[in-house]
Design a protein that fits this description.
about 150 residues, alpha+beta, three-stranded mixed β-sheet, two-stranded antiparallel sheet, 7 helices, 5 strands, about 50% helix, flat
């Protein structure tokens, strides 16, 4: 919470109870929650908080570097509480995002053609996968179809 308070002060943001609750919820998540997931959790403590407030707050947190926005293959913006170097597995079936670490991926060089034309703000390897649960469902569906 100290990082949250310092970052808010640096960027001229008031530290409101709702902002603190939104930050606590996103940081405590082991997933990559959507604004709706954070909204539903925060609303339990603050029933009058609006979805718009939660969404704008999460976008503000991303703008000031407290969190980042995870790439999503399902079209729903997902938020990344872990700012340490890591990579993602995206399930193309259910949309789940899983973190993984791989030292070789951390040191992949950005091609000169890209770094000369763009300002690279970060890099993350994203692998498109079928997660174990979706793979099991597909196997079950195939078995049911065969019967």
């Amino acid at each position: 919470m100290e990082q949250f308070a310092n970052s808010c002060r640096e960027h001229g943001l008031k530290i409101t109870p709702q902002r603190a609750a939104i930050y606590k919820e996103i940081i405590s998540s082991r997933e990559h929650p959507s604004a709706d997931q954070v909204f539903r959790a925060v609303r339990l403590e603050y029933p009058n908080v609006s979805f718009d407030t939660v969404n704008r707050t999460l976008l503000t947190f991303a703008d000031i570097g407290l969190i980042s926005i995870a790439e999503s293959s399902v079209g729903i913006r997902r938020f990344e509480p872990d700012l340490n170097a890591h990579h993602h597995l995206h399930c193309v079936s259910c949309g789940a995002i899983f973190d993984f670490h791989h030292a070789d991926y951390d040191v992949i060089a950005v091609p000169d053609k890209i770094s000369n034309s763009y300002t690279v703000l970060g890099k993350r390897v994203v692998l498109q996968v079928l997660c174990p649960a979706c793979l099991d469902r597909k196997k079950d569906d195939l078995a049911d179809a065969a019967n």
